[in-house]
Amino acid sequence: MIKVTLLVVLLLTSCVKSPIVEKDPKPFSPEPEVVEEIVFYDPVETEPTNTEFKPYFEGQTRAKGIKTVESYSVDLIREGLDSPWGIDSLPSGQFIITEKSGTIRILNQDGNVSDKIFVTDEIDDSGQGGLLDVLVSPDFEIDKTVYFTLAEKANQGSVTAVAKAQFDLENTTISQFTIIYRALPYFSGNNHYGSRIVMDDKGNLYVSTGDRQSLSTRGNAQKLDNGHGKILYIDTDGNAVNTNPFYHNDSAHQAIYSIGHRNIQGLAIHPLTHELWANEMGPQGGDELNLIESGQNYGWPIISYGEEYSGLPIGEGISVKDGLEQPLYYWDPVIAPAGMIFYESDVIKEWQNNLFISSLKAQHITRLLIRDNRVIGEERIAENLGQRFRDITEGNDGALYTITDSGQVYRIGK
After folding, report:
1. Tens of pLDDT, residues 126-135
2. How far apart are CA 110 and CA 77, in angstroms?
């Protein structure tokens, strides 16, 4: 990894008060050397914080504002979907979209959409449950495989589960739907399933779970004997990967990759470094962005930059403790981050390798500029549409496609 040395220069303009221009001769990660000029503005967040916590390091929150220079548009291409939750790209240039009730839709880039395609009724779609994320196999043209996460229902309650199935795109049918993994134990609540899924370059799956939003289960995020409040690492048959940090611990849940998570609805793998990044919904204040490392503890519910919705402290009311990981970035007030993706195309060059996060409560798409594993710039996109953005993906045309809780699909690009 190439370390970035930033040279900061003040630049006066007639339209913006004292923006900062940074000359960055060595961009983040092993990219070709280019000279990059970035204009910084005041932070995009101007509302007061919910808590009195101070950042652990400079730039951990409220980074400088940035603005996309290249022209692009935000276009509504479809509406009327039924509570969409996950979206992924197909090799054909189309998209597969999950609906919480247990169906999928196939969307074309022009906005035309298929009828509902039944996937499963083995779900609890109350609250935050349902058929949730979707991941298309990188070898889809050969193996026809898609992966799903869902809130599986049972007599004991519900559980975050992973399934795989065969999808016949030509005939729009799902077959051989099989649950391959359950993040036990079951619980009777219907919130905080986590439920994002991504595949690494080894062909294995990272899956996020939540703490199930109950005081009785919150502490499970710190325990090794269960799948709540974790990132899990499994193969495509649902088996724990044998390099997992607790694989040889007989009392531990072998699939655990990291612990101490509240509710992760965003996972993305950096296209150059292949590192795993996760966003995490905080309570009142304290949404997080983390760089995930094997075996690490990300603190929930021992430390947090947020507070209870009542205004009371979380636990001892601390944000730092030895042995617990600090977020690389946090938001207070919260944005309620959901699906996210690193932009890989060169169609909009200044976006390349930037992180785009769909935001629910804040109702915009967050663009983050990251250098040397630090957020140095933040932009809000599509912030005046009044939509809760649930997930986002990149099309083969170099545009971003995002779904909203109200059933709309937007294309963001040239």
Report:
1. 999 999 999 9
2. 7
Q: Is the peptide bond before 301 cis (omega within 30 degrees of 0)?
A: yes
Give the length of the chain: 414
Sheet holding 20-24, edge to edge: 7-10, 20-24, 36-40
Residue with tokens 């699939």: 255
117: Cβ–Cβ under 8 A, 6 or more apart, which residues?
103, 104, 105, 106, 172, 173, 174
The answer to whether the predicted template modeling score (pTM) of the entire model surpasses 0.90 is yes
- CA neighbours closer than 13 Å in the CB half-sphere of residue 184: 9
Amino acid letter, 205: L
Place of tokens 């999950």: 98
Give yes or no: 192 in active site.
Answer: yes
CA-CA distance, 375 to 17, in Å (whole number)? Answer: 22
* Full 3-state SS string of 292-325: ECCCCECCCCCECCCECCCCCCCCCCECCCCCCC
Considering 192, 228, 253, 261, which one is annotated as catalytic? 192
Pairing of strands 337-342, 329-331: unpaired
What's the rounded Cα separation, in Å, for the pair 231 and 210?
Answer: 9
Query: Could you tell me the strand order of the sheet in which 73-78 lies?
Result: 73-78, 409-413, 400-404, 389-394
- What are 30-83's pLDDT values in tens digits? 444 444 689 999 999 999 999 999 999 999 999 999 999 999 999 999 999 999
| Rounded Cα gap, residues 163 and 238, in angstroms | 9
Fill in the amino acid letter for 369: L
